[in-house]
Amino acid sequence: MSLPPGFLDELRNRTSLAHVVGRKVIWDTRKSNQGKGDMWSPCPFHQEKTASFHVDDRKGFYYCFGCHAKGDAISFVRETENVSFMEAIDILAREAGMQVPKADPQEQQRAEKRASLADVMEMAVRFYRTQLQGGAAQTAREYLTGRGLKAKALERFEIGFAPDGRRALFEHLAAKGVEEKAIIDAGLAALPDDGGPAYDRFRNRIVFPIRDARGRCIAFGGRAMAANARAKYLNSPETVLFDKGRSLYNHGPAREAAGKGAALIVAEGYMDVIALVEAGFDGAVAPLGTAITENQLQLLWRIAPEPVIALDGDKAGLRAAMRVMDLALPMLEAGRSLRFCLMPEGKDPDDLLRAEGAGAMRRLLERAEPMVRLLWRRETEDKVFDSPERRAALDKTLREATGRIRDPDLRRHYDEELKRLKWDLFAPASRRTPVNRRRGGFGRLAKIQPSPALRNSRLAVSAESIEDEMREAVILATILRTPAVLDHYEGVVETLALANETHARLRDAILSCANDAGAEFMERVESIVGGETLESFFAQPHLAVTPAVRHAGNPEMARMCLAEELAKLETRRGLAQEVREASEDVHAGHDEHLVWRLSQATEARNRADRQQMDDNTEYDTSPNGAKLNRDERSAFDELIRDINFSRTRGR
């Protein structure tokens, strides 16, 4: 079967060779540079241990320096899938969302027509550029100068001017032998509804040529000079050359710059792109007068794995960013995402560059936020979550959003990051963790530090005793051995004050892995805290005799153990708090509530003692259980002496 020439070009343009090859190989991450499309792996065509198989994703070719296999995506599918040429075409076309055209004897004629129209477009480029130098373009030149565009920029982007005459371009092309139909088919002229002669589509406008990735002029964009023009910006209509939903302004040069390490920046319009490039940001592109489409996202990811969306700093720009995010969510996968750089209020990239320079733009780009932060911002900004119902509604909204992510691993990472952000929002102020927004880091749950007064008191030192640490260890070890109980106790564990850094690290690791409490739970925790830390932790003698730790995977036993240990910790720490606050009242001279406080503290002590006598010691991990130890009793007796001394002096 004969395929149209343009079909194979389009297929190769839409197909990522690295993605196709990646299904068959494991990339060598030390040699590969995904951002540049420079990928290496052991060769799939012969047995080897070294990475001698090279894929140039931008050029669409592979080569093995060992066996000398080479080709493109089509040949790779043919060789690895053992299929014919047309079968390989069919496989790749389905993946690219294209339909293989049926045999068409006229396709060659259409290909020739496209080539002919491309020639007509180049003639129009030259005409418009010449017109920009004429007297009729004085206002246009002043406008461009006022926007900071110098002669070098005008030449680089081939900016021109369409004169105000109704048939200026049409007559120029006709004089060179171009047929009327070709001028109309190229989108340069249109026929009026009343049946009159064709007229130029662009009149009294600054003109920006739009080129495809191969450098062919496929359309124009025009900026009106007249204040009362029907449209400020006007693009060519869709033609056999131009599909605006599959095209990007400055596509070819940006792809080349990104291949050399430049950031791929997506701005809103022509002037933003030109200003960015002139300021040194060569990887700038723009959609063409419309919201970013799914096909344009695919084009962007062919250029770079993480484009930066830099939209205007107004409500419309923010809405546009949200639309891009919603469009991208189902398309995300590992190594393919977006970052968002929102301009200051009321400014676009061109405004910022002219007002503050390239340094200000660079700083904004460095602080571009990952997409998960934009999602969080949309669902929480200017909202109040002062009730369980509102918080539950937030949970539901976030679950629905991340549920659209098809990649399960990526979806899990989104859920983990959103859980951390919820923790920062809802946790008590003393427990909140600063988030490193510039680097996009997750941060780490902060360990609570006691106040100096509490830390220096004898009772506080007792509260951070070995006994408390032992109970904390039992709680953490029980969850590590039976992670299924974490669903019920996750909130309690999040707010649990821990006595040492190791316990805090283990708690943080447990929470970060809470969404995947399955067979690989311990392995994931170990990857965070390290094998030596876990081994040392479980080597504690009292854990070896704890039933819930010995009988790993028993949810009922684990729940009983956790309930008891958490209750005992709460009892002891609650008592410590009562005594501490009563002591503060004594020294402050506020003793009107001391009797009540002492009665509460005494009752708490008695409850703890009674609980110890009634306890089933199968789950007890310390000799004293919940009873006050010697230091606590001493502190309590000292408090009584302070009260008596205070009253004696009062008399």
From TrEMBL:
GO molecular function: DNA binding; DNA-directed RNA polymerase activity; zinc ion binding
Alphabetical list of InterPro entries matching this protein: DNA_primase_core_N_sf (IPR037068), DNA_primase_DnaG (IPR006295), DNA_primase_Znf_CHC2 (IPR036977), DnaG_bac (IPR030846), DNAG_N (IPR013264), DnaG_primase (IPR050219), TOPRIM_DnaG_bac (IPR034151), TOPRIM_dom (IPR006171)
Zinc finger regions, CHC2-type: 43-67
Pfam families hit by this protein: DNAG_N (PF08275), Toprim_2 (PF13155), Zn_ribbon_DnaG (PF01807)
Cofactor: record remark: Binds 1 zinc ion per monomer.
Cleaved signal peptide residues: none
Residue ranges of domain Toprim in the record: 262-344
GO cellular component: cytoplasm; DNA-directed RNA polymerase complex; primosome complex
Cofactors demanded by this protein: Zn(2+)
Keyword Nucleotidyltransferase applies: yes
Recorded catalytic activity of this chain's protein: ssDNA + n NTP = ssDNA/pppN(pN)n-1 hybrid + (n-1) diphosphate
Region feature (Disordered): 602-633
Bias (Basic and acidic residues): 604-613
Family matches, as CDD domains: TOPRIM_DnaG_primases (cd03364)
Source taxon at top rank: Bacteria
EC number, UniProt record: 2.7.7.101
Domain notes per entry: Contains an N-terminal zinc-binding domain, a central core domain that contains the primase activity, and a C-terminal DnaB-binding domain.
PANTHER family given in the database record: DNA PRIMASE
Purpose: RNA polymerase that catalyzes the synthesis of short RNA molecules used as primers for DNA polymerase during DNA replication.
Family listed: Belongs to the DnaG primase family.
Protein name per UniProt: DNA primase
